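User: quick one - fold this with iron/sulfur cluster bound?
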Amino acid sequence: MKHYRNGGSTAARQLACPGWRKLADAMPESPTSSFAEEGTILHFCMENILEDGWEIDELDVITTAGISLKLDDDHREKLTMALEAWDEFCKEHKIVDYKCEITYELDEDTGGTCDIIAWSNDTVWVVDWKFGQGIKVSAPGSAQGMFYLMCAMFEEPELFEGKYLGVAIIQPIPSRDVETLDIWELDDNELDNFKRKYLQANGDNLAAGKHCQFCPAAPTCPQKTGQAQAALIADPEALATLAGNLTAALELKDWIKQVETFCHEQLEAGAQVQGYKLVQKRATRKWSDAEAVELALRKSRKIKLAEFTKSTLLTPPQLEKVFKKKDLDMSVVSDYIEKVSSGTTVATADDPREEITLNANVLRGAIDRLS
Ligand code: SF4
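Assistant: Sure. Structure tokens for the protein plus iron/sulfur cluster:
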């Protein structure tokens, strides 16, 4: 599948902050997240449920585009809710036909793959599956929806002749009491306005806002840096309302996380970030050979079985407590204790923990990911 420089998922950001693309071009490509991979798999499932009659209850391990996911009950519930909302949508809006995963291109750099283009006798709809649970996405005003309508209208003008336009978002969120289907019927003027503004949204202008979330340029963006500095020097009494502070804080929170993540990724990729280094996270003790520990404890006969087991063997710190209480010598099992860190974290250069150096294989893997 071709990846366009200007696509549907970045249309809102392009409109609000045209300069983001230039900044993002200077950044390394971010590794995909588990949420993005889950979305890819669930989109693939919906395509095959609609096109090839896949049965949701029979879906287990799904593989596509080099990624695999073993579906659980939550995934199957989301797929069932999405399918029910799709059926409801088709019935209510008298859909006569549709196409799945269709790629529309406006020019070499601009285009994308629309989840579904569907039509009735009087309306053409862009339908978008959303499988994220954090942010509820609305259909009214959807830049992504208008982007796909614009590209589809460019490539298949005959499909749109004399038709109204619509955007439908199907977002199943099992844990929240929200509607799965959201629709927006728009008129030609709204699409024309979008098209005009989108095609003029070029240049270096930067403007921060809600669209900064997920922006790959955020860690080095001067707008965000300025926002952060302004927040640091602001006099609380001068701030107009608490609501204003909260909005800024929430936006900054996202940005701070993006900076930390980017810095960690860069250090793991072998880059130098002045004043920072990679260190191991706090190591926790665990048994290197649980069977041998159990045998040693059984042999010692100084501690009863029920005292060193729950349903599983106690961890080293838990067992140490028992030994201390009984005034026993831990040396019978201390050879089996190993310290294993759960990964790396970023610390300031004067942190007392030892700096870790990445071995050649890890570095090579990180460089491969970036190239
Ligand atoms: S972080 Fe926000 S202001 Fe900066 S480039 Fe991205 S969208 Fe624009």
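One thing worth noting: The chain has a mean pLDDT of 87.
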